[in-house]
Amino acid sequence: MEIIRVKDYETMSKKASEIVADRVKTLENPILGLATGSTPEGMYRYLIEKYQAGEVSFKSAKSFNLDEYIGLSADDKNSYNYYMFDKFFNHVDILKENVNLPNGTATDLKQACLDYDQKIKDAGGIDIQVLGIGVNGHIGFNEPGTPFTMRTHVVDLTESTRQANSIYFSSLDEVPTQAFTMGIGTIMESKEIILLAYGESKANAIAQMLKGEVTEDLPASILKNHPNVTVIADEKALSLV
Ligand code: GLP
């Protein structure tokens, strides 16, 4: 696991965008694993700048997002689908048909999970997966206690995660109680992973991930068993390491 210590959010975002842009340029048909949340927003901003400057094109790229709320339609402002188009896809040349997120309004949830995993497999697997980290060490929506072998599945969100994500909703009641998430098994099959973290609220999770044992109680700890992980974190997120 390589750790890149940066001074702040902007530097983290820039560094992440450089790594992703490099893989997009190098690989013939890059398969990107993408994340939502406040953490990768800056990275998307820098990637858009690179695209506008003619430095990178996403025309041959495919993307798979980590997770999506169940019950929110693609055009719901709080859906991850909406976030991705608003913050990234609408501003670059990725083809709409190459963009994949779990379908938040699917009726057969089990089948939707199987289909999503199959699509990733058919695409040849994820080349580079971008991850944020939850304050409790979750990745995607894999909450503490999730078996490491899980594939894409439906999760009941913990109260702390709903609370943390409620800032985007007008009230806590509106935050969905369930979500689709790629499982740890799916995430660990990515050829390369970059995990981004900034701010004090992540310091505890980052310290546990780096210094503690590999345990399902801290989902991100499994990343220590992956051969190609880069953590890009700012000084605050690394303050307890
Ligand atoms: C959510 C997402 C995760 C994300 C995490 C941290 O629960 N499902 O993919 O990494 O929150 O979010 P933020 O980047 O806003 O701190």
Automatic annotation (TrEMBL):
GO MF: glucosamine-6-phosphate deaminase activity
Pathway in which this enzyme or protein is active: Amino-sugar metabolism; N-acetylneuraminate degradation; D-fructose 6-phosphate from N-acetylneuraminate: step 5/5
EC supergroup of this enzyme: hydrolase
Residues covered by the Glucosamine/galactosamine-6-phosphate isomerase domain: 14-226
Family matches, as PROSITE patterns: GLC_GALNAC_ISOMERASE
CDD domains: GlcN6P_deaminase
Keyword vocabulary terms for this entry: Carbohydrate metabolism, Hydrolase
EC number(s) recorded for this UniProt protein: 3.5.99.6
Reactions catalysed: alpha-D-glucosamine 6-phosphate + H2O = beta-D-fructose 6-phosphate + NH4(+)
Active site (UniProt): D67 (proton acceptor), N136 (for ring-opening step), H138 (proton acceptor), E143 (for ring-opening step)
Family membership noted in the UniProt record: Belongs to the glucosamine/galactosamine-6-phosphate isomerase family. NagB subfamily.
HAMAP family linked: GlcN6P_deamin
Name of the protein in its database record: Glucosamine-6-phosphate deaminase
Organism: Pallidibacillus pasinlerensis
Lineage, broadest ranks: Bacteria, Bacillati, Bacillota, Bacilli, Bacillales
Gene that this polypeptide is encoded by: nagB
